[in-house]
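Hi there, hope your week has been kind to you so far. No rush at all, and the record is pasted right below.
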Amino acid sequence: APAPPTAPAPTPTAAPTATPVPPTATPAPPTPVPTQVPIAPPVRLSIPTIEVDAEIERVGLTPDGAMDVPKGPWTVGWYAPGPPAGELGNAAMAGHVDYRSVGPAVFWRLRELAPGDEVIVHRADGSGRRFVVTGVRAYYTDDIPLAEVFGPSERPGLNLITCTGQFSASARDYDRRLIVYTEAVGPAFRVR
């Protein structure tokens, strides 16, 4: 019986070898991540519309976790655990609307501010930053939108806080807080 036909044997070839291909361009160096230069702490607050020109003191948290308040009737308290005014995020500053045995205090006229009014923060390094009022709102103390007032933001904001509403003699406090929202405008400048 004849043998079945067979296919011709394949001709062995050399195995492929990897030849490095030279790059057509040099790789770009890694892009440096921009770092924000720390901003000097705020030392003075000016609000020309309501004739405020006040020193700023650092405040933190009270034992029950609320923002502390300035120690006197004529100073403004900057919430130092948050960003300084002019840095990305929402800086917060509080002042008394009135003060025991004094009467009207530094933020007595804060409720008169309206969108477009200017707020100026002077910093320890001699620079300053302008802010413009974008809104004024009153909230019951349990309804304050904390993330909106103290939380992160894509732009530099400054929120001014004081008491408003009804005063409770037994609680020795007001039932609402007035928040004046502002945003930075223009670059920092040298104070004269």
The longest strand covers residues 173-190. DSSP finds one helix and ten strands in the chain.
